[in-house]
Amino acid sequence: MPEPVAVIFDLDDTLYRERRFVLSGHAALARVVADETGMPARVLFRFLARRFRRHGREGLLQAFCAAYALPVAEVPRYVEIIRTHAPRLRLPRTSREVLAALRGQGRRLGVLTNGLPGTQRAKVAALGLAAHVDVVTYAQEHAPEGKPARGCFVAALRALGVDAGRAVFVGDHPQKDIAGAAALGLRTIWLPDRATAIATTPADAVARTLADVPPLVARLLEDRHVRAC
After folding, report:
1. Confidence of residue 227 (pLDDT cuts 50, 70, 90)
2. SS3 label, residue 186
3. How far is C-alpha 57 from the geometric centre of its chain's CA atoms?
């Protein structure tokens, strides 16, 4: 019987766009503040969404408090509302198709994700990932700093029952995902976002889109087989 082969994915901005989670959190926060103040939730959400789109997360909640005369001391509670809300997310069709294609090729599938485990578990549940992969590993349960620490990659491989030489990692972050996996001997596929320069990647392959991953996995595993012969 051939040895199993595994493909391990990063979660945020690899299998779905993390901004969907952020916007879901903003909607939850807007509803809470609307209930507490009587202000319209849609107005509060529109401010949060526009500010986030233009300036990102930096100073967002402080600006929210300033715009609506809310106590800035509430910012930690607002952060907690966003982190712990029940997100409304959907796994993109391309992600579902790619995972199904890899399973059809007999690959074992895993997810290794950074972030607070409770928050990440809520995302995984909302995306329905349990039906599409074999294992989800929460990096900070195995290494306090998460990826790129060696311990979390070892935990993911152990859960899948494969060694590093029989695994491919797919992620968007050059250091946390790609360099971390490569240091342990996994083959790597980088899925760059728009903010990252391609020249910085140490990956074995670069995917333009997630749909490129199944043929790249096959090519990388074939290359390794040829070198081993």
Report:
1. low
2. coil
3. 17
Residue type, 16: Y
Taken as a whole, the chain contains a residue count of 229
Run of H or E residues at 37: helix 18-37
pLDDT digits (tens, 9 = 90+) for 115-124: 999 999 999 9
Query: Whose structure tokens read 């140490």?
Result: 202
> Which of 78, 79, 87 has its CA nearest to residue 34?
78
CA nearest to 111, candidates 92, 88, 93, 130: 130
Closest CA to 213 of 100, 80, 77, 74: 100
Over residues 161-218, the pLDDT tens digits come to 999 999 999 999 999 999 999 999 999 999 987 555 554 667 999 999 999 999 999 9
Name the 3-class secondary structure at 179: helix
DSSP tag of 147: T
Q: Strand, helix or coil at 39?
A: coil
What is the separation, in whole angstroms, between the first and last Cα of the chain?
18
- Crossing angle between the packed helical segments 60-67 and 75-84, to the nearest 10 degrees: 120
**What is the three-class DSSP state of 104?**
helix
Yes or no: say if 178 and 198 are a contact pair by the CB < 8 Å rule.
no
Nearest Cα to 193, choosing from 210, 181, 180? 210
Distances from the Cα of 135 to the Cα of 24, 110, 129, 194, angstroms = 25, 5, 9, 29
